[in-house]
Amino acid sequence: MTASAPTILATSGGLRPGRRTRLEFGPLLHFAVELACVSGRAPRVCYLGTAGGDQHWYATLFADAGRVAGVEGVRLDLFPMVSADDPAQLLGDADVVWVGGGSVANLLALWRLHELGPAFRAAWEAGVVLAGVSAGSVCWHVGGTTDSFGPELQPVTDGLGLVPYANGVHYDSEPQRRPLLHRLVADGTLPEAYATDDGVDLLYRGTELVEAVSEVPGKGAYLVTAVGGVAHEERLEPRLLGGTR
Fold first, then answer.
1. To the nearest whole number, what is the mean pLDDT of the chain?
2. Given the DSSP bridges, would you call strands 221-227 and 193-196 parallel, antiparallel or unpaired?
């Protein structure tokens, strides 16, 4: 089975320190797997580390975490060459696609170079759950804020646009994130935006946000809109997932 509708989980979380492995799936990642509605076999999770330069050591940690979680792990690398003969089929055969953090600007440039945009859209429309953290959250949106260009955050405006909003990540842990997102929405550089504190996820069905969920108590999600050229922020209270610690 696949997700009941085109589904995106855009997060500022997902992995956490493991008990017997360096990393393990946190509640947000388990939630992504649950949404894929797999039964009778191990869910298939495809990991993309493009934003971090396809670091094999980190992909190994993700694979270890996947084994502990009982999923079948596959991955799509773009360094030093594309790792699959048919990337579109690899993505389409997954139940969940998880995109790691790093440089969203570099990620988007490489995905376009390798013409992966249509493959992601086809997988999304077919019910593959598209998910990820940080760069792996911003990428599904129109754009957002990024440190891809240096320590002073800048806008990125060429996201895949599967959902028609901007995205703010690490909203409570990186001081530049909130004021920059407010300014970019207020001046029209970015459309209205959804943002997440660390540990929070945005769940989209189709192109509509249906809820925010959190793996950390007390964290929030936010809607930022422009009213008369001034940014307006509304807190969206997340549903707390089980399995938090």
1. 96
2. antiparallel
Pair 12, 169: CB distance under 8 Å: yes
**134 assigned to active site:** yes
171 C-beta neighbours (distance < 10 Å), count: 23
Selected catalytic residue, list 30, 141, 170, 182: 170
Q: Which of 134, 137, 148, 214 is catalytic?
A: 134
DSSP type of residue 50: G
Instruction: Confirm if 39 and 45 have CB atoms less than 8 A apart.
Output: no
Judge whether 75 and 59 are in contact, CB under 8 Å: yes
Handedness of CA 87, 199, 239, 144 (dihedral sign): negative
List pLDDT tens digits, range 118-143: 999 999 999 999 999 999 999 999 99
Residue 203 DSSP SS3: strand
| Spatial distance between the Cα atoms of 240 and 119, rounded to a whole number of angstroms | 32
On whether the pTM is more than 0.90, the answer is yes
Q: What are the structural domains, with CATH classification, of the chain?
A: 7-240 (3.40.50.880)
3-class secondary structure, 31: helix
Residues linked to residue 42 through DSSP beta bridges, in sequence order: none
Q: Is the dihedral of CA 22, 28, 34, 35 positive or negative?
A: negative
Is 182 an annotated catalytic residue?
no
Q: What is the CA radius of gyration of the chain?
A: 17
| Residue length of the chain | 245
First to last CA, the chain: 30
Token readout for 42 is 């191990």
